[in-house]
Structures are given as structure tokens and as C-alpha cells.
Specification:
Radius of gyration: 23 Å
Distance between the termini: 57 Å
Largest sheet: 9 strands, mixed
Strand order of the largest sheet: 1-2-6-5-4-3-7-8-9
Shape: elongated
Helix content: 40-55%
CATH class of the largest domain: Alpha Beta
Structural class: alpha/beta
Number of domains: 3
CATH architecture of the largest domain: 3-Layer(aba) Sandwich
Number of helices: 16
Order of helices and strands: HHHHHHEEEHEHEHEHEHEHEHHEHHEE
Amino acid sequence: MEDRIYWLGWQCLLPGIGKRLWTLVEHFGSPEAAWEASAKELSGAPGIGAEGPDGLVQRKANLDLEDLVAKLEASGISFYCYSEPGYPEKLLSIFDPPPVIFVRGQFKAGDSLAVAMVGSRKPSPYGQIVAERLAKDLAAVDVTIISGMARGIDTVVHKGALAANGRTVAVMGSGLDVVYPRENKRLMEQIIANGLVISEFPPGSPPEAWHFPARNRIISGLALATVVVEAGERSGALITADFALEQGRDVMAVPGNIVNPLSRGPHRLIKQGARLVEGAGDILDELGLEKLFPANQVGDGGSVKMSADEEALYRLLALDPVSLDELIVKSGLTSQKVMAALMYLEIKGFVRQMPGKSYTRTGRNLF
């Protein structure tokens, strides 16, 4: 795109409110024409903001676009304009997509199969355990985990995905050179190495309060579904769920203790029709079993065909529970392969997970 450098400039001057930038560019016909406009010409244009045309012209004059591109490259930050190669396809269809996104890390084709997981910044031990387990189980079957790298549930699910050697994406409410919260610096480095971090806010942008509701539409927009794990009645996680509904995406929620205030958000969503989630299998089922069982996994007569790993693990199971550690040792498979195979077996109805990370056969026979 010949205009991409001007889109970049405008995104740096008017970040976080894509609609304002879209209307401004539409008024002038192109981002370059808007960039070259005088204060007098800008005075009659929409989307200028409180600073007025004179302030905007002064800020434009102080921004060297070529120098900005060089600084982004030096910082390892890429940028993608709307509809050009590299811009996430799922964001193209949402209301108010960011005209420009900044990225550290690499998008992969598999990131199209993604689930957003959000929740309280002060979760209970129960919430942390459930969130980590869900993220691990989903990441183990190549589902990318999307969240916001905030304290609490966000941090837990990013770490859970990384622990399963899976992909995870963090959507930031600040510039990508600003680590927030600061204690997540190491986590951010790990996410970049195993996934990516993304923001519509240019480098140097601080984590201002209004940034986070804006970034929530990107979290939900990148995912097929949003799962809420513990959220108060006014939680930002519910804002993300609302965005998901507006975007036509699935919303799911994990039930909790009825006396815990953090259960009110998920329970409200469930009452309104959100899928109740007890395990990763519920999420995968809601997304459609065809994603799990393509034609080459179905045997003669429509019966489900098992992989070699699944058959090996099923032979080790009985009606009495067998621990996960014992299955790993006896099967000789990696923990990641064992977890993935057990999940498939559970969804297919052959295995049931029991308390204490143990598994047992169901009444359905595989052989």
C-alpha cells in the first residue's frame, strides 16, 4: 500500500479510536491527502478532536514518518495496515477495526483457530487452577490462546499455554515497548518467542485507563470464542464478552461458587445463554467437532477412528482411575502428547477425567 506510511502517521496521532480516523480519511479521500491538509482544511473535517486543527498540524510537523519507521524496525516492531497482507483476517470483519496494528512476534496460519480467555485480575485459587488447565488443554491441541497480559486470569492463561508448548497472543493496552504490568516483562518475552504481542497503540503509549476497553474488542475479534473465568458484575472481562457477541462470536463461561462475587459475571452470561464450560472439551465441542475430527479420522461405517497414541493410552486405562503420571510413564509418550490424546478420547466419549489428574474408561468400548 502506497499510503501505509501515512496510515502509520495517523495511527500515531489518533490512536485507539479507529472510527475517528476512518471518517477523517474518508473526508479527504486518502490518508496522504489528509496528512497534507492545512489547518484551515482540517477545521471542517470530522474526527479532529479536542486539540483542534492547529494542534494537530503542529503534532504532524513534529512527527518524522521515515524516522518513525526506522525506530520501529530497530525495536523489532512490525506494523500492518488494514486489508494488507499480514493484517489478521478476523479483525477485518469487526466493527471499528484498528486501521493499523503494531506487532512483535510472528502470526501463523494456525492462529486462526484461537480462543480468547479473560477474567478477574484478582482471581481465587479455583479460578487460577481452572484457567490454567483450560489454557493448557486447548494449547495442547493447537488452539491459540488470546488474552490481554493483565494481572490475574490473563497472566495465568498465557502461562498455561506456554507450559503446554502452545501458541499464545497478548493484546496490549499500551505501546509494545511499554511492559504492563511491569512484573510481566519475562512473560512478555516468552510470548514474543512463542507467539506474539499486538497493540493498536503506537510505541511509547502508556497504559491509560481508556485503552483497555478499546483493546478488549481486539481480544474478542481475534478469536472464534471468548471464555470468561471469574468476573465481577462490572468486570472488563464482561466488556470483552459483549464485544464478542456484537462480533458474532461465541461466548462461554466457567461456573463458580455461588457465594463468590467473582461468579456473578460468568453466571449472568450462562443465564443469558452462554455455553457452560466444565472442561476444554466443552469449548471444542461448541466450536464444532469437524475441527477435531476431519474425514480422515473417521473409520468405516461412520465410527470414529483412533490415532496410535489414543489407542495406546486407552489400552492402559481401566474402570478404576489411572493417574496422569502413570500414563505418561507407561506409555512412553511426552506429557504433551498424552494430554492431547486424552482430550480427544474424552471428547469422543471413551475416557472420563476424575479428580486428582486421573482418568478412567467410560462404558463405551473402543475395540
